Automatic annotation (TrEMBL):
<dbReference type="GO" id="GO:0005930">
    <property type="term" value="C:axoneme"/>
</dbReference>
<dbReference type="InterPro" id="IPR029416">
    <property type="entry name" value="CFAP300"/>
</dbReference>
<keyword id="KW-0206">Cytoskeleton</keyword>
<comment type="similarity">
    <text>Belongs to the CFAP300 family.</text>
</comment>
<comment type="function">
    <text>Cilium- and flagellum-specific protein that plays a role in axonemal structure organization and motility. May play a role in outer and inner dynein arm assembly.</text>
</comment>
<protein>
    <recommendedName>
        <fullName>Cilia- and flagella-associated protein 300</fullName>
    </recommendedName>
</protein>
<dbReference type="Pfam" id="PF14926">
    <property type="entry name" value="CFAP300"/>
</dbReference>
<keyword id="KW-0966">Cell projection</keyword>
<keyword id="KW-0963">Cytoplasm</keyword>
Length: 268
């Protein structure tokens, strides 16, 4: 019987994510209420990784004391390493197969009533859904299950990592100035996705007709980690859809990237 690998972890020096840290992206983060509420960190691990070990790796990661001593959590307006080891974790595999932005082309077609020919979003009467003000069809497409636009993306598409990033940007933080046009959301989604996800060449395909030569080499997990009292800390208050924590595993390079967003400030 094969034993699960006994992973150990080492924090890496802060990496410069050029497309995320550039002035345009940071401008939009500030406008959308995201600036200061997103943390990205990198760690390496020692053992070979196979995708079937992903849940075990996630559990070892959040129960590791070295990770706990370096993992940043939101405290008010600051990010602080709390030293909290997880007592339990909930892990959900996040599909990550999208290779280009044509995934969002249906949003650009005026016939689908998300945007006008000008690229400006189609407005609707204000409604409150899950605490968000929905004043256009773009947010309706994300939040309003009863509107026609919601059907543009099926459940499998909505689960995709790139859609989750897009959703996070469109809904924004507690102090969010919404965009009148769609394109800034698409451009910023592309930058984040491109920097966080590794694209690799496929191995030679045995099946005839497999004409793509690229695939995604990153395994993505959504995680809720809880302390010994059963309180969620990664992320805190995960019942809010904008409090989300991801673990991105690059098995080839034996690296893990954490992506955590907390909606506004949170006080322990």
């Amino acid at each position: 019987m094969e034993l699960d690998p006994d992973y150990t972890f080492v924090p890496l020096a802060p990496r410069h994510y050029m497309e995320i840290e550039n002035k345009d992206t940071q401008h939009y983060f500030g406008k959308w209420g995201l600036q200061g509420n997103i943390s990205i960190q990198d760690f390496c691990f020692n053992e070979p990784f196979q995708p079937y070990n992903k849940y075990h790796l996630a559990e070892r990661f959040f129960k590791d004391q070295t990770v706990a001593n370096h993992l940043l959590l939101k405290e008010g307006d600051s990010w602080i390493a709390k030293g909290i080891k997880a007592s339990s974790i909930e892990v959900t595999a996040v599909p990550c197969f999208v290779l280009n932005m044509s995934f969002f082309d249906k949003l650009l077609d005026p016939a689908n009533k998300i945007v006008h020919n000008s690229g400006v979003t189609c407005k609707r009467f204000d409604t409150d859904i899950e605490g968000f003000t929905v004043s256009d069809n773009l947010r309706g497409m994300i939040l309003d299950e009863y509107c026609e636009e919601y059907q543009l993306f099926n459940s499998e598409e909505r689960a995709e990592f790139i859609f989750r990033i897009f959703e996070m940007l469109v809904l924004g933080g507690s102090l969010c100035q919404f965009e009148e046009e769609l394109q800034p959301y698409l451009d910023t989604t592309k930058k984040i996705y491109k920097e966080l996800v590794r694209v690799q060449k496929r191995r030679q395909q045995e099946q005839q007709g497999a004409n793509r030569d690229l695939s995604i080499g990153t395994t993505v997990l959504q995680v809720v980690a809880k302390n010994e009292r059963g309180e969620a800390f990664y992320p805190a208050n995960p019942e809010h859809r904008q409090n989300i924590g991801f673990l991105l595993i690059d098995g080839s390079n034996r690296q893990i990237t954490t992506l955590l967003h907390q909606f506004g400030s949170f006080h322990w």
